[in-house]
Amino acid sequence: MSVILETPLELSPSLSLDEVAIVIRGVYKQVLGNPHIMESERQLSAESRLCNGELIVREFVREVAKSEFYRRRYF
Predict the structure, then answer these.
(1) What digits encode the pLDDT tens for the residues 20-49?
(2) Nearest CA to 20 among 65, 42, 43, 53?
(3) pTM above 0.85, yes or no
């Protein structure tokens, strides 16, 4: 499944879990520069909150960028 979308995908309650997973993978690829991250490197709490509608995509991006994994990798 390709992560690259031709048009921006807006996160809405009508999206399937597969579509939300595409958004999540796209965020990881954009922020971390690597679409294949290990399970231990994922922000599972933030992913869950995004899926539940408790976070918007912008907040999810912020959480990934503020993660310990990001800091260790880039600073």
Answers:
(1) 999 999 999 999 987 678 898 999 999 999
(2) 53
(3) no
The single residue listed with the structure tokens 């690259």 is 4
Q: Does domain 17-74 have CATH number 1.10.3130.20?
A: yes
CA distance 18 to 68: 26
Name the residue type at position 71. Answer: R
**What's the pLDDT score for residue 37?**
86
Residue ranges of the domains in the chain? 17-74
Q: Which contacts (CB < 8 Å, 24+ apart) does range 37-44 have?
A: 37/69, 41/69, 43/67
In 3D, which of 22, 16, 44 has the Cα closest to residue 8? 22
